[in-house]
Hints:
Layout: H1 3-21, E1 32-36, H2 39-49, E2 53-57, H3 72-80, E3 83-86, H4 93-102, E4 109-112, E5 121-123, E6 128-130, H5 138-155, H6 160-185, E7 194-199, H7 203-209, E8 212-218, H8 229-241, E9 246-250, H9 256-265, E10 268-273, H10 288-303
Parallel strand pairs: 1-2, 1-3, 3-4, 7-8, 9-10
Antiparallel strand pairs: 5-6
Helix pairs in contact: 1-5, 1-6, 2-5, 5-6, 6-10, 8-9
Amino acid sequence: MTKTLLLVALAAIVTAASACENSNSESINAVVSIVTTNNISEDWVRRIGGDRVEVLSLVPPGTDPHTFQPGARDMTRVADADVVFSIGLGLEKRWLTDMLNKDSANSTLMIALGDAIGPISKEGATTEVLDPHFWFDPLRVKLAISEIALTLTALDPPGTEIYRDNSITYLLELDELHAWAKATLNTVPADRRVLITSHDTLEYFALRYGYQIVGTIIPEITTGTEISAKDLTELIDVVNKQSVPAIFVENTTNDRMATRVAEEAGIVAISSIYTGSLSRHGEAADTYVNMMRSNVTTIAEALR
């Protein structure tokens, strides 16, 4: 959905909602209870919902969303929520499906944001795999923001104008983020726009900004596998042949193998890339926009 279509859709909902706003004035201060599956989408919901929403991320800061294990309290939080926003596209498959199966009576609204963004698909070992890491493309994130705004409006019509105004403001901020990222990443010489990361997370980033993924330490979209000795040797060979300047290690994965590859290839391992989680509050990547700015700056400075 383009920004123009979003504005038209939200304007229509505002008109419809205003008719019932007076008759439902007692719900003006109502809070929509929301659970997200990671703190990146939690930040998006906070930006759109503002004070009208109460939002909690199941996965804590610095935790790998692929391998997170929910507890009994998390099941209660999901059951008590008005809506759960997941990333979808298989990111939380290992634990979210199991959690929902254990509570078959749960009727909480489930929204997979990845369904709205036109995902990239890759060939897996036995079948096609959808890449869930769309948040590395701010323009695709805009589509997720549209989905959040429309969902909140449907759940809380009296808050429609707030959700509309907040989403418009944030969409413009994402446009600015994209323009800045593109300009910054274009300062890297074309022959050095190559990336090796801990696991396969930056395909959306590479596609949007004209970079090439030449290798990964974990050769899959999920983090639940290990690199073989053969793959390790081949990766070191790729680093040497393509003169890759650096390996980028993600904040939610173990850096042992990346450090080994970097040492054997005589390059640096940069361990300050945020992928599956924001940083803690007050640190460099404590919001989605700050995370992207931190990552773009780190990548550009390492590859120049």
